[in-house]
Amino acid sequence: LGVRAADSYGRLPLHHACVNGALTEVVEKLLMAYPESIDVADVWGKTAITSVRTSSNKNKNAIIEMLEKRPSFYVMKVADMKRVAIEEKQQIAFDEKFKVAEMKHKNVLTALEQELVNERMKAADLEGKLESTKKNVESLEEKIAELEKTVEEDKTKIATLEKSEASLNERVESQNEEISILSEKLNEMESLRESLSNLEESSSERI
Fold this sequence. Notes:
Layout: H1 13-19, H2 24-33, H3 48-53, H4 60-67, H5 71-206
Helix pairs in contact: 1-2, 2-4
């Protein structure tokens, strides 16, 4: 509101700044705050540019150049400044969000990398156990093969023993038959002896 307030002579702060030797930066700020003040005249019909041309302001040439630009120039400049400020804020907000997202992604990536390391360690441990199991299986297979070989050898021995036993049984049966025959012969001889003995007794009695 201050940049639009005129004194009793209709002069705006811009009029006073131009006449009283204000710095160009001050004049530019007044124009940026109220661009239409370029065309505002005081009670004598003087605009800011008319006043500065008749002043002894050492910066009047630079100020005249600034005032010769239309209000639309400063309106656009203000709009550009606001746009740049908004873009800077948006960029700052984006950078903050990006940093947060990047940090989250890094944390997730770190967690995934650690998980991958853990899985690789588990896989290596399983491979070691699998290799040990394979060796145990190979050892068991060798023992089974040895046992099967021993069983085959035992079967062969048993078959041989069975043959030997059968042969021995045959011999025993043959010997039993021979013993039976001898026993019969012995019985016959005993019978003959008894007969002879009886004959001898009979002969003795007759004599």
